[in-house]
């Protein structure tokens, strides 16, 4: 499940950055952020994988590993959902907080980083849990593109002659374990944030 871990980091970093662009006071940055979210959220994930594996290496980065291509496709796609979750969290912070920060001379990035995002985190945790569980399940698509992951392991075992039903059961159990672990991790983080409130 290393592709899940790598694409989760990509999605989280890009999602927070694009959310910052979407609430930016600079119109071109807001337009870029909106275009990013609109394009990626409305494009089928399989199509992003096809572009990532068959267009990107031909035009931009020949010889890039399938693992990295799959991680980028999955991370970029999920970043649009992370962005919207973070943006909705930012919108829950009272406007007066940002105005007070600006009145004492803080820049937009400082206001976002020091004042707004820490307060928005509490409301962002629950939707992020669902997003990263969906990312874990979406990683199964990478198996069709020669990326070794949990669902791709099923194909390998089937090719070696193992009975397909037990292999599918083990793969399903593997996904259950991973998704329950993610859910439990976010539950712990949510509880910790509640104590800090």
Explained architecture:
The chain crosses the membrane at residues 43-61, 167-189. It is a multi-pass membrane protein. InterPro entries: AA_ABC_transptr_permease_3TM (IPR010065), ArtM/GltK/GlnP/TcyL/YhdX-like (IPR043429), MetI-like (IPR000515), MetI-like_sf (IPR035906). Belongs to the binding-protein-dependent transport system permease family. HisMQ subfamily. Pfam families: BPD_transp_1. By secondary structure, the protein is mainly α. 81% of the residues lie in helices and 0% in strands. It has helices at 2-22, 27-41, 45-54, 56-59, 66-92, 95-103, 108-138, 150-159, 164-196. α1 (2-22) packs across α5 (66-92), α1 (2-22) runs antiparallel to α7 and α8 (150-159) packs antiparallel against α9. The radius of gyration is 19 Å and the shape is flat. The two termini are 33 Å apart.
State Rg. 19 Å
Helix and strand element order = HHHHHHHHH
Helix content: over 70%
* Low-confidence parts: none
General form: flat
The computed structural class is mainly alpha
Estimated share of beta-strand residues: under 5%
- What is the terminal-to-terminal distance? 33 Å
What's the total number of strands?
A: 0
Count of DSSP-assigned helices: 9
Q: In this structure, how is the largest beta sheet organized? A: none
The pLDDT mean sits at 85
InterPro entries: AA_ABC_transptr_permease_3TM, ArtM/GltK/GlnP/TcyL/YhdX-like, MetI-like, MetI-like_sf
Subcellular location: Cell membrane
Protein name: Amino acid ABC transporter permease
Keywords: Amino-acid transport, Cell membrane, Membrane, Transmembrane, Transmembrane helix, Transport
